[in-house]
Design a protein that fits this description.
The complex is a heterodimer. Chain A is α+β, with helices and mostly antiparallel strands. Chain A is 26% helix and 21% strand. Chain A folds into 2 domains: 3-75 and 147-211, Alpha-Beta Plaits, CATH 3.30.70; 81-141, Alpha-Beta Plaits (2-Layer Sandwich). A 4-stranded mixed beta sheet of chain A has the order 8-1-10-9. In chain A, strands 2-3 form a two-stranded antiparallel ribbon. Chain B is α/β, with parallel strands linked by helices. Chain B contains 22 helices and 35 strands. In chain B, the strands form 13 sheets. Chain B has a 6-stranded mixed beta sheet with strand order 28-30-29-35-27-33. In chain B, strands 3-2-1-8-9 form a 5-stranded parallel beta sheet. Chain B starts with 12 loop residues before the first strand and ends in an 8-residue tail after the last strand. The chains are: A alpha+beta, B alpha/beta. The A-B interface holds A 11, 13-17, 19-20, 23-24, 29-39, 41-42, 57-59, 64-69, 161-163, 183 and B 22-23, 26-27, 29-30, 33, 37, 49, 51-55, 58-59, 681-682, 694-704, 719-721, 735-741, 805.
Chain lengths: 219, 806
C-alpha cells in the first residue's frame, strides 16, 4: 500500500514548522534572503528548500480579508511525469519507490544536465524539482524516505502542531480527506480536494487554487 | 491562566484579544483548533489581521490602545440587555456591595485624585461597612457596585465605542452578541490575552475589564472559561511566581517597606481580616507563608527571637519604583555605575532604545551572560559611535542554552514541568545557577574575611556549596526544621512538607514558595516529573489529567472552581463538570478548599477565596488608577479629545522626563500615524537568539513595516520599498509590506492610519535593520510600570537610501 499525505490548509497557521523542519532534517544550508514585502521567504522552492509555505491574501465577496497558506512540496504523483521525462535522457535518474510511492531522485541524476533538469521541471504539473547548478543535481522532497523506512513520520508531518498534515497508508488518508472535506464544506462551500486520484500529497483547499498559488493544482 | 491549555478546547467561544496566539503560541494554538473542531466560534480582535485571524471565524480590527472602550462597550451591552448570568453574579461577585459616600467619578477622574503626584487617595473608594465591620450588601442601593457599574458604563454606547475604536457598530455587535451568548450555565467562553493587553499605560485595567465581563457572564471557575494570559515560551509564569521582579517576594507576598520595620509590622499590614463567616480569606495564612520563606532563606539562623531574620531584608520606600525602567533612568542619570544584565537584551527590547543605549555608556562595568553577542553586550561598539570614547568594561559570560540544563518551568497553565539536560553546555558555558551559586559563595568569603556593611544578610543565608536543581526543587517545596507528626505520621527534620496546609509561622517549616508546596513530597517524589495520563471518567469529560506533572496550587487545574457549582455543589454545566459534591467530599478537580458547598451555612465557603471577603470584584478598589476600568487614550495619541471624558490620557500613567524622553503632543500633525509593535513566530522576542539561527533568519530576514494600501498610496510607497519611520524619539528604517491585512480606521469622523512593526531586529545581525523600540515611548502602566510598547505615534516616508538594511 503506497503512502500518502493530507494537507488540510483550513487548519494551517503558517507557523512554518514544516518548512524549517524539512531544512533541518535534510541538513540544507540557509539561503541569503531579503525582505521584499512578503512573509513568504524564501520566495520560491530552491535547491535548499524542498518545502516552503506560500502566502496569499485577498478580499472575499463581502470584503473580508482572507489569508491563505499553502505548504508547497512534491506531490509524489501516482504516475509521475518527471520519472518518464528523466528516463528519456538518463534512465533511473528518478524512480518511484514501489513500497511507499515516494518519487525519488537517484545518484544517476548527477548525469542530468541543467537543460535536462529544466525539462523535468517543466514537465512537472506542480513546478516542483529544482536544479542545483553547483552540486549538479536535481533536488526535491523525498518523503523523508529514510524516516518512513524506519517507521517514522516525515519530518514536516511530525512537526505540524495544528493537525494540518497527516501521513498514512493511502486508503486511510483518502478516507480522512473525505471526512475533513465534509467538515470544511460547512464553512467553505467551495472546499475541495486537489487532484486526489493523481497525487499522494492531497491538498484540501477552501477555495479556488488561484487564491493559493497558480500551480497549486493541475486540474 | 485561571484555566490551562487543554481546557481551551472546552470553550463555546474563544475570544482572542491582545494576543496573536497562532504566531506566538503555535503549538498551544492546537487547543484553540480543538475548540473549533468541537463547534466553538473563534473571535480575534486585533489591530492587524494575522495568522491567528486567518483561523478564526472572524477578525475585527481595532485601533491600538482602545481595548477598554471596546470592552466597556461590551459591559454596557451585557448590562443593558440583561445578558448577565444573574445567579452567578449574585452568588459570587461583589455586585451587591455598597460603595462609600466618598466615591465619585466625574470628567474622567475618580474621587481622591491628586494632580501633583498623579495618584489617587484610594481610601475614597472604600466599601460601606455595617456595624459588624462586614461590607454592607444591598443590590438595590443607589451606590451598590452593580448600580455604579451600570452608570459608569452607560457612556459606553455603541456610537461612542465605534467612534473611538474605529470598529464599526456592526462589527461591535457581532463580537458582543457572539461572546455574550456564553452568559448561560451550559455555555462557556474563554478569553486569551497576552502582551497586546498588558503593554499599555492602562494595561492592568484592560485585564480588569475582561474580568468584569467574565464574571458577569459566569465564565470564571468553569471548564472552557477563564481569563487566560498566554505567557512567554520559557518560564514567564515561573519567574512571576518566584518574584523575578522587584515588587513582591516569592509567592505573591508584599515587598517589605521601610515603615514595616519588624516582622509583626509587616504581618499586620499584609494579613487581611474578614468579618464574613463564610469567607475563607486565604491570605489570613500569610504569616505562615512569609515565615516559612524566611526560614527557607536563612535556615537555622532564622529564629523567633530574631524575627526569622526579617530585619536583614532590604526595605523599599513606600511609592518608590524599582522597576527596570527606573533602573535604566538612574543609569542614564549616572546614579548607577555598574551591574548585571542577564536574560534580557534591553538595548533592543526596551522602549526608547536610543536613551537606553546612551544610558549604558555611563556604566563603569557591566556583566552579561548570553548565548550570543547582543546589542547590549556590544553597545560600546554600536554603529555611529567611537568605541574609544566608551569607558564601560564589559564581562560577557557564556551562558548555557536551555536544553543544556535541567530543572523546571511553569507553563501558562501553572503546570510545573521538569526537563532533563539534553546535552552538556558547550565550552565554558554555564547555566545561570552555576554562575550565581559560586558567585555568592565568593561574596560570602569576602564578607567573612573583610567584613562590610550588614554582612549577616549574606553570611547567614542558608546557601549551598554547589547548585543542584533537585535540591532547589525540594527547597522550593519546603522542609520540616524539627520532627513533626501529621495524622500519626512522623516527618523528621529535613523531610519534605506534604502540602502548604502544613506550613507554620513558628519556624518549624520552610518553603521558598508556598504555592509550590506539595510539588515534591516524601510520598510521591518530584511531581513535576509525573507523566501519567490516567484520569476518572468525570475528569475525562473536560480533559483534566491530574497525574500529568503538577500544578499550583495543590494541583488545582481550574482556579475558583467552586464558582462552577450551585450552592449544593452540583455542576452548573453537568456536561463539563469541574468539581461536584458527592454528599461527603468533592470529586473531579481539586476544589478551592475542602469546605462543603455554600448551602452548608456553618461550614460552606464563598468561591473567591483569595479575596478578603470571598467575592469576586466587579468593583476593585485595590488598583492605583481606579476601581472601574475607564477608557483613556495612549500617552501618545492621534486624538485631541474623545467622547468618554475630558481626561485624554490616563491621569496616573508613569513616565520619565529626561531630555531624551520626548512625547509628541496630542494630535500632533508631525506624527499622525499610530504605530503598534509585536513579535512573530520565526523570532523570539528581540531576536537575540533567533537571529543567530540561520534557517530562522532565512524565513524572516529583515525588519518590515506592515501598512495599508491606502497609506502606502498616500505616501507614494510601494511594496518592498525602503521606508523611514520617525517618532519624537527616534528614526528607524524598514521595508514596506503593503497589505490588505491592515486597514485605515475611521475615528471620530477622520481617517487614522496604523502601521505595525516587529521588534526582533538589531544591528549585531548585519544589515537586517535595527531596534524598532527606538520609536516607542517611555510611558508606563502605574500598577506594573510596563511600557506602552503597543501604541505610539509616528510618521513615515519613502527612503531615498537605506543604511541599516541591505
Amino acid at each position: 500500500m503506497p503512502k500518502a499525505f493530507l494537507i488540510d490548509t483550513t487548519r494551517c497557521t503558517a507557523c512554518r514548522g514544516c518548512q524549517l523542519g524539512c531544512k533541518e532534517w535534510n541538513g540544507l544550508p540557509p539561503n541569503k534572503t531579503k525582505q521584499q514585502g512578503s512573509h513568504q521567504n524564501p520566495p520560491d522552492l530552491n535547491p535548499f528548500n524542498y518545502k516552503i509555505v506560500r502566502f496569499h491574501e485577498h478580499l472575499d465577496a463581502e470584503g473580508n480579508v482572507v489569508w491563505n497558506f499553502f505548504p508547497d512540496q512534491c506531490r509524489h504523483c501516482v504516475t509521475p511525469v518527471c520519472v518518464d521525462v528523466a528516463d528519456m535522457v538518463v534512465p533511473g535518474a528518478l524512480i518511484k519507490d514501489s513500497a511507499t510511492g515516494a518519487v525519488l531522485v537517484t545518484e544517476k541524476s548527477s548525469q542530468l544536465t541543467a537543460e535536462d533538469a529544466e525539462a523535468i521541471r517543466n514537465a512537472c504539473p506542480y513546478d516542483i524539482p529544482r536544479y542545483d547548478p553547483v552540486a549538479k543535481k536535481l533536488t526535491k522532497c523525498d518523503m523523508c524516505i529514510d524516516r518512513v523506512r524506519a517507521g517514522l513520520l516525515p519530518v514536516c508531518v511530525k512537526t505540524c502542531p495544528t493537525g494540518t498534515m497527516a501521513f498514512d497508508d493511502r486508503d486511510a488518508i483518502v478516507a480522512l480527506a473525505q471526512q475533513r472535506l465534509a467538515v470544511a464544506k460547512e464553512r467553505f462551500p467551495k472546499a475541495h480536494l486537489v487532484d486526489m486520484q493523481e497525487v499522494n500529497v492531497i491538498f484540501l483547499l477552501a477555495e479556488e487554487k488561484e487564491y493559493y498559488h497558480e500551480r497549486a493544482a493541475f486540474m | 491562566m485561571t484555566n490551562h491549555w487543554i481546557d481551551i478546547k472546552n470553550a463555546d467561544v474563544v475570544f482572542l484579544m491582545g494576543s496573536n496566539a497562532a504566531e506566538h503560541h503555535p503549538v498551544g494554538f492546537k487547543w484553540v483548533m480543538k475548540a473549533k473542531d468541537r463547534g466553538a466560534k473563534l473571535i480575534h480582535v486585533d489591530p492587524k489581521f494575522s495568522r491567528t485571524s486567518a483561523r478564526c471565524d472572524f477578525h475585527v480590527p481595532l485601533r491600538s490602545g482602545t481595548d477598554i472602550a471596546f470592552l466597556g462597550g461590551m459591559i454596557n451591552y451585557i448590562l443593558e440587555k440583561e445578558l448577565y448570568y444573574k445567579e452567578y453574579v449574585l452568588n459570587n461577585t461583589n455586585a451587591a456591595f455598597v460603595v462609600g459616600k466618598d466615591y465619585s467619578f466625574e470628567n474622567g477622574l475618580f474621587s481622591g485624585y491628586n494632580a501633583k503626584t498623579r495618584t489617587y487617595d484610594r481610601s475614597k473608594w472604600a466599601f460601606e461597612k455595617g456595624l459588624d465591620g462586614a461590607p454592607l450588601m444591598d443590590l438595590a442601593h443607589e451606590r451598590s457596585v452593580f448600580n455604579l457599574m451600570k452608570k459608569h458604563y452607560s457612556r459606553y454606547t455603541l456610537k461612542n465605542v465605534a467612534d473611538v475604536t474605529g470598529v464599526s457598530e456592526k462589527d461591535l455587535l457581532r463580537v458582543y452578541d457572539t461572546f455574550c451568548a456564553t452568559g448561560k450555565p451550559n455555555k462557556a467562553g474563554t478569553i486569551l490575552y497576552a502582551l497586546g493587553w498588558t503593554q499599555h499605560t492602562v494595561g492592568v485595567q484592560n485585564i480588569r475589564a475582561s474580568a468584569i465581563i467574565q464574571l458577569l457572564l459566569g465564565n470564571i471557575g468553569v471548564a472552557g472559561g477563564g481569563i487566560n494570559a498566554l505567557r512567554g515560551e520559557p518560564n514567564v509564569q515561573g519567574s512571576t511566581d518566584h518574584a523575578l521582579l522587584y515588587h513582591i517576594l516569592p509567592g505573591y507576598n508584599a515587598l517589605p517597606l521601610a515603615p514595616w520595620q519588624t516582622l509583626q509590622d509587616y504581618m499586620k499590614a499584609n494579613t487581611p481580616v474578614t468579618h464574613l463567616k463564610n469567607s475563607a480569606n486565604w491570605w489570613s495564612n500569610r504569616p505562615k507563608y512569609v515565615t516559612s520563606l524566611l526560614k527557607g532563606w536563612y535556615g537555622d539562623a532564622a529564629t523567633p527571637e530574631n524575627d526569622y531574620c526579617y530585619d536583614l531584608l532590604p526595605k523599599g520606600e513606600p511609592g518608590a519604583d524599582y522597576s527596570y525602567m527606573y533602573v535604566m533612568d538612574k543609569i542614564y542619570h549616572g546614579q548607577i555605575t555598574g551591574g548585571f544584565i542577564f536574560g534580557v537584551n534591553p538595548l533592543n527590547s526596551f522602549p526608547n532604545t536610543n536613551k537606553m543605549r546612551k544610558a549604558l555608556d555611563n556604566l563603569d562595568w557591566l556583566v552579561c551572560s548570553e548565548l550570543h553577542h547582543s546589542e547590549t553586550t556590544d553597545n560600546w561598539q554600536r554603529p555611529g559611535e567611537d568605541p574609544k570614547t566608551k569607558k564601560t568594561e564589559v564581562f560577557l559570560l557564556p551562558s548555557a542554552h536551555r536544553i543544556e540544563k535541567a530543572g523546571t518551568i511553569s507553563n501558562s497553565g501553572r503546570w510545573l514541568l521538569w526537563f532533563d539536560k539534553a546535552v552538556e553546555p558547550g565550552g565554558e558555558a554555564r547555566n545561570f545557577a552555576d554562575m550565581f551559586v559560586p558567585l555568592i559563595n565568593r561574596i560570602r568569603k569576602l564578607y567573612e574575611t573583610e567584613g562590610g556593611v550588614l554582612p549577616e544578610a549574606v553570611l547567614k543565608l542558608n546557601w549551598p556549596e554547589k547548585f543542584d536543581p533537585e535540591e532547589w526543587a525540594r527547597r522550593i517545596n519546603g522542609q520540616f526544621w524539627k520532627d513533626t507528626t501529621i495524622n500519626g505520621k512522623l516527618y523528621k527534620r529535613g523531610q519534605l512538607v506534604p502540602a502548604f496546609g502544613h506550613l507554620k509561622d513558628d519556624g518549624s517549616t520552610s518553603s521558598l514558595n508556598w504555592l509550590y508546596c506539595g510539588s515534591y513530597t516524601e510520598e510521591d517524589g518530584n511531581k513535576s516529573q509525573r507523566r501519567d495520563p490516567s484520569q476518572t471518567p468525570m475528569q475525562a469529560k473536560i480533559g483534566l489529567f491530574p497525574k500529568w506533572s503538577w500544578c499550583w496550587p495543590v494541583n488545582r487545574r481550574i482556579l475558583y472552581n467552586r464558582a462552577s457549582v450551585d450552592v449544593n455543589g452540583r455542576p452548573l454545566n453537568p456536561d463539563l463538570p469541574v468539581i461536584a459534591w458527592d454528599g461527603s467530599k468533592w470529586v473531579g478537580d481539586v476544589p478551592d478548599g475542602p469546605w462543603p458547598p455554600q448551602a452548608d451555612k456553618e461550614k460552606g465557603k464563598l468561591p473567591f477565596i483569595m479575596n478578603t471577603d470571598g467575592y469576586a470584584q466587579l468593583y476593585g478598589p485595590g488598583r492605583l488608577d481606579g476601581p472601574f476600568p475607564e477608557h483613556y487614550e495612549p500617552a501618545e495619541t492621534p486624538l485631541a479629545s474623545h467622547p468618554f471624558s475630558k481626561q485624554l490620557s490616563s491621569p496616573c500613567y508613569k513616565f520619565h522626563s529626561s531630555d531624551m524622553d520626548q512625547l509628541a503632543k496630542a494630535a500632533d500633525p508631525k506624527y499622525p500615524i499610530v504605530l503598534t509593535t509585536y513579535s512573530m513566530t520565526e523570532h523570539w522576542c528581540g531576536g537575540g537568539e533567533t537571529r543567530n539561527v540561520p534557517n530562522l533568519l532565512e524565513a524572516e530576514p529583515q525588519l518590515y513595516i506592515e501598512m495599508s494600501h491606502e497609506l502606502a498610496k498616500e505616501k507614494g510607497i510601494k511594496n518592498g520599498d525602503g521606508v523611514i519611520i520617525e517618532s519624537a524619539r527616534g528614526r528607524v528604517e524598514a521595508i514596506a509590506m503593503v497589505t490588505i491585512r491592515i486597514r485605515p480606521f475611521t475615528v471620530m469622523g477622520k481617517t487614522i492610519h496604523l502601521v505595525g512593526m516587529p521588534f526582533a531586529y538589531g544591528w549585531t545581525t548585519p544589515k537586517c535593520g535595527d531596534s524598532t523600540n527606538r520609536l516607542t515611548v517611555t510611558a508606563y502602566d502605574p500598577n506594573t510600570t510596563i511600557p506602552e510598547a503597543k501604541a505610539c505615534c509616528v510618521n513615515i516616508r519613502k527612503a531615498d537610501r537605506l543604511t541599516e538594511i541591505a
